[in-house]
Design goal:
This protein is of the alpha/beta class. The chain is built from nine helices and eight strands. Helices cover about 40% and strands about 20% of the residues.
Length: about 230
Amino acid sequence: MNTKNPSISVVIPAYNEEKYLPRCLSSLKKQTFQDFEVIVVDNNSTDKTAEIALKYGAKVVRENTQGMTPARERGFREAKAEIIARTDADTIVSPTWLQTIYHTFISNPDIVALSGSFTSPYHMFPSFIFHFYMIFLVTLTRFLTGHISLHGPNLAVRKSAWQKTSVHKNDKIIHEDIDLSCHMAKTGRMLFLPQLTTTYSLRRMRKNLLSTVIDYPLRYNRTIYIHVSS
């Protein structure tokens, strides 16, 4: 890792993630691209999240306002690099994740953000289901808004473009990554890369299926409506 002048800053919002964070940070240690820093945003954790992050060489910053959006935004502000990659604490990134992100931005100087797809952590839940869902969501968002959607556990932005945005802060009302997509789209072109993969965690779905099938779609629709009607 490069903590002084990195080419990429990796931002990981985290709230009580001591069980899952080590796997995420271990996958970052295995990257083929090593010119990056890791910023773990401790969002009022009461467990050993911060201690674990420091053990893996990450920079830890604390965000007292609870929520994914405030934590993400704090991490983005702290980022030293122009390219900011963002993932979740319970996500495992592929070995070439950062290399693909870096070379895509370098090869496409006009893009302001990109996102990718997911693979499944379970053999009983085939990865092609995730790929189909992501392509469906990207296509639906493009149809409704004119641009692709970014996906929290697997996205990257140019900091200079992000600094021109002013996102909605209450992620109990909006879908934070879809909201970010709508704001970033106003600053430039975005790409969806199906080959850019991370292993998605199904723990939230297992923990609260009702939220997944009801709350998520409601917040998605609300977020799209807010942006399309404004």
